[in-house]
Amino acid sequence: MIDFRLGDEYEALRKTVRDFAQSEVAPVIGEYYEREEFPYDLVATMGRMGLFGLPFPEEHGGMGGDYFALCLALEELARVDSSVAITLEAGVSLGAMPIHRFGSEEQKREWLPALCTGEALGAFGLTEPGGGSDAGATRTTARLDGGQWVINGSKAFITNSGTDITRLVTVTAVTGQQPDGRKEISTIIVPSGTPGFTVAPKYSKVGWNASDTHELAFDDCRVPEANLLGERGRGYAQFLSILDEGRIAIAALSVGLAQGCVDECVRYVGEREAFGQKIGTYQAIQFKIADMESRAHTARLAYYQAAAKMLRGEPFKKEAAIAKLVSSNAAMDNAREATQIFGGYGFMNEFPVGRFYRDAKILEIGEGTSEVQRMLIARELGLP
Ligand SMILES: Cc1cc2nc3c(=O)[nH]c(=O)nc-3n(C[C@H](O)[C@H](O)[C@H](O)COP(=O)(O)OP(=O)(O)OC[C@H]3O[C@@H](n4cnc5c(N)ncnc54)[C@H](O)[C@@H]3O)c2cc1C
């Protein structure tokens, strides 16, 4: 059966988030962005709307929805602004999801209710200063000593890790050696404020300027043995599965940015004049916008299909990688074309397309670069 229509609940959610993005995010986000300030009030509203709890069960404080609902929300937010969208994406799919998927009942009860309401944020510490694509090469270590994990190492570029409401970061660390000689990697929950855990000042970034990103250092940082998330030695498999899902979420966010570029251009070319005519009457401009719409449309189909396979419980690794690859390309291409259509104003921060341009590039890098997506697709095709 093929049916690409959204059900009533999905459609209602999409509309609610669209209204919020247009009426509450759009008017203020440009100033947050310029001040490089985290938008606590918008995050609090998103929390009250239930967005941080979308794919989690009600018994742990969630909304009882699914991952596709989260994707729809991300698309609609990113259509207006990506900093707000990535704050939600990282909070849900990287911060809370590992606890939901792999945590003990006790860990879920301790952490999920506040993460689901957006009162607290969790972060996911996988990437290290020495490399992110080869995440199995983790250098951070954790050893057991007197019933505690002693963590040493550092993590780079960690989203949501240093806000006033950040409560925890889940960290991947080498906890030993497997029988075949490979590193044994495990995931450990480190609450914010634990002695020995330092959050560096925020990075100065090219884009996503209203989102929170820091380098983290662990220097003989001690947490209880019970903070191990899931089974010891399963850390590598855990983050691979978290990233597979996360790719669909980043694809949705990318589609939102790509569509936002179309929205802005359709409006602008009906107003701007050159050589005595609206620039929207020139076929060269119309073709650019037609191509932009086509890219957003096809990328959306790719993430819908990957999400549908995931929700049916079927393997979706290849489809998620394809969706992330094509939608981040679409976002980048559309942002470049939108900036061109806006001319000099496209280069001004006061217009959303300038923000889109700065925010698009990271989509080809974060949660697996485009090269990594191609590696995954090639591997799924059985290439050596
Ligand atoms: C703003 C921001 C937020 C982020 N948030 C988080 C977060 O919350 N948590 C987290 O853990 N990480 C986060 N990251 C890290 C992000 O996931 C990594 O930057 C990304 O995975 C790439 O890793 P790297 O930067 O170390 O690049 P590298 O791995 O050093 O790669 C450098 C280049 O080499 C290419 N390359 C590497 N290996 C191969 C190969 N085998 N074949 C061909 N090309 C190859 C890459 O594609 C890339 O072009 C964030 C990054 C940014 C910038």
From TrEMBL:
Give all residue intervals belonging to the Acyl-CoA oxidase/dehydrogenase middle domain.
123-221
Q: Which PROSITE patterns match?
A: ACYL_COA_DH_1, ACYL_COA_DH_2
Cofactor requirements of the protein? FAD
Occurrences of domain Acyl-CoA dehydrogenase/oxidase C-terminal (ranges): 233-381
> What does the record give under GO molecular function?
acyl-CoA dehydrogenase activity; flavin adenine dinucleotide binding
- Give residue ranges for domain Acyl-CoA dehydrogenase/oxidase N-terminal: 8-119
Query: What keywords would UniProt list here?
Result: FAD, Flavoprotein, Oxidoreductase
**Cited Pfam families:** Acyl-CoA_dh_1, Acyl-CoA_dh_M, Acyl-CoA_dh_N
Regarding protein family, the annotation reads: Belongs to the acyl-CoA dehydrogenase family.
Q: Which PANTHER family match?
A: ACYL-COA DEHYDROGENASE, ISOVALERYL-COA DEHYDROGENASE, MITOCHONDRIAL-RELATED
Q: What is this protein called?
A: Alkylation response protein AidB-like acyl-CoA dehydrogenase
Q: Which organism is it from?
A: Prauserella shujinwangii
